[in-house]
Amino acid sequence: MNQTTNTAATTLEQVNAMPAATWGWLKMNQTKLELSDELAAAPAEAVEIEGLDEQFAGSADAFDAAIDAMAERFPERRASAPGDAADRARITPETELDVPATSVYQAGAIKLEEELSPAEAFETGMGEAAYTYLADHATKRIVIDVSAYKHATVTVRVSGVDAAVAIAAIDVVARPQATLDLQIALDSPVNGQGVVGSVLRVCAYEYATVNVTCTQTLDDSWIALDDTGLFLDEGARVNVQHTVLGAGASATGLAGDLLGDTAKVTIDTDYLGAREQVRDFNYELRHRGRKTECEIDANGVLTGTSKKVYRGTIDLVHGCKGATGTERETVLLANKGVDNKTVPVILCDEDDVAGNHGATIGHVRDEQLFYLACRGLDQNAAEDLFIRAKLEDAALSATDERTRAAVVRLGNNLIDNFEEELA
After folding, report:
1. Distance (Å, rounded) from C-alpha 353 to C-alpha 405?
2. What pLDDT shows up at residue 1?
């Protein structure tokens, strides 16, 4: 873990780091976070829980026990790639040129397949340093353990507290063929500044379904951190919806280990960057099971002088025959002052797989701006149209009235008469 501390702030290194780095001069491989040491711990009331019945409240070690048990379900590792122990064993001075050389990343991937148990391989998308910070500063720890064949709906709300850190640490265990609908809301109903976030760990057993919806509606004075790690057993399904609308700076990370055959993960991300806001995303999905599937869709609007980095990595590991992965991003750049970086990556060490990736990135054309100007809309008014459209969509698709009200509150802070026109 790379974490350094000084008298003023804690600096988290290697946050949202790509598993296989690209050219360093692009400045996209990872990010760095500086978080004030003067922030207090938020009171427990900053994290609210709705719908967690006693029958679904798990023990403190439920997740760790579940992930440890996966070592018994998957005692044999998948076939490793060239350069594995069998190759290394036959190295002699006469044959060393016949053994494939491996990169640092490949060596780590081979070790993962040969030695690491599911518990040791488990990770979250923002990385070790960020996970440790979030876990150590957790305002409230929540364990949801859904029994086999049962269905639960749980909502967790995290509210910003001025000059404080408010974090919900959520562990989820979905037993065989269980279903969980989990809504997470990160909001700042009062003025102030600080850190608001969540760290989520999910262990989905055979044919379990976990649906996660996270909506972030913080004002610009706040920092938002959203970290997730997934483990999927055979036939498990995890669906994630990230809606990132506010916060002066936000970091979102998700890592998924699809070890069970036919497991599937879908991720839908909607985001808005306005004024000088910063958005940072990192998604990593590792296919280790046969016939596993993943789909990543991101759709965003950038206005003002906002900045965004999107990293999406689909890792098709040796042995994941029949696996398919698709990632797409669509970005509308509504101002020439925005800074957009998109890096979709597919890592492939298996022949019987399908991987697809692409990005559609476009500016609002000058003739379109001229058309709007002829109708009395200057550059700022035109950008407000795109912001309004994104916020209206989020308000209409909100999971409940409180979340909708949070979107409306944010919209009122960004655009004049937002609530009236929405109504």
Report:
1. 44
2. 41
d(CA 71, CA 25) in angstroms, rounded, equals: 40
232 C-beta neighbours (distance < 10 Å), count: 30
For the whole prediction, is pTM greater than 0.90? yes
3-class DSSP state of 388: helix
Bridging pattern class, strands 264-273 and 237-244? parallel
Instruction: Tell me phi and psi for residue 405, to 5 degrees.
Output: -65, -35
Which DSSP string corresponds to 147-214?
Answer: PTT-EEEEEEEEE--TTEEEEEEEEEEE-TT-EEEEEEEEE--SS--EEEEEEEEEEE-TT-EEEEEE
Task: List Cα–Cα distances, 350 to 13, 16, 80, in angstroms.
Answer: 32, 26, 10
Does 98 score more than 70 pLDDT?
no
CA distance 124 to 200: 8
Which two tokens mark 341? 């970086």
State the virtual CA torsion across 404, 406, 408, 411 in degrees, nearest 10: -140
Q: Which whole-number Å values give the CA distances from 272 to 222, 280, 341, 383, 400, in the listed order?
A: 15, 12, 14, 11, 20
For residue 356, give the H/E element and its range.
strand 354-363
pLDDT in tens, 361-383: 887 777 777 677 787 777 777 78
Q: Which pLDDT band holds residue 114 (cuts at 50, 70, 90)?
A: confident
CA angle at 342 for the pair 252 and 368, rounded to the nearest 5°: 110
- Burial status of residue 187 (CB atoms within 10 A of its CB: 0-12, 13-18, 19 or more): buried
Confidence at residue 243, expressed as pLDDT on a 0 to 100 scale: 98
How are beta strands 151-159 and 179-187 bridged, if at all? parallel
* 301, 390 Cβ separation under 8 angstroms: yes
Token pair 């998700």 is at which residue?
A: 254
